[in-house]
Amino acid sequence: MEPEAFVELFQNALFQVLVMVSVIIIPGLVVGLVVAIFQAATSINEQTLSFLPRLIATLLALMFFGHSMTRMLMEYFFRLVEEIPHLLY
Q1: Which of 13, 36, 59, 82 has its CA 20 to 30 Å from the CA of residue 45?
Q2: Contact 68, 19 (CB under 8 A)
Q3: Which GO terms describe its cellular component (predicted)?
Q4: Closest-CA residue to 16 (of 83, 86, 78, 82)
């Protein structure tokens, strides 16, 4: 069993996590930035104003991309299960 195989598995796992997290986080960041610019332009200093739009953007991102993220995770899991015999020998 070679260490390079584990490093490659770990790299692939980190890439999957990075893709899945960024799909959820980036829409919330963009909406937060737009709300912050709106608050700065109108001099509204309400802290709770940016929470609800970010929450809605995050939930919408989960709703739209949840199926594809689950599919990606399942494909990665199946690929890992298929590679187990090759890793043991």
Answers
A1: 59
A2: no
A3: bacterial-type flagellum basal body; plasma membrane
A4: 78
Instruction: Tell me the pTM.
Output: 0.78
The candidate with the shortest Cα–Cα distance to 29, out of 61, 72, 69, is 61
Domains of the chain, by residue range, sit at 15-88
DSSP string, 31-79: HHHHHHHHHHHHT---GGGGHHHHHHHHHHHHHHHHHHHHHHHHHHHHH
pLDDT at position 54 over 80: yes
* Amino acid identity for residue 85 in this structure: P
Do residues 61 and 21 touch, judged by C-beta distance below 8 A? no
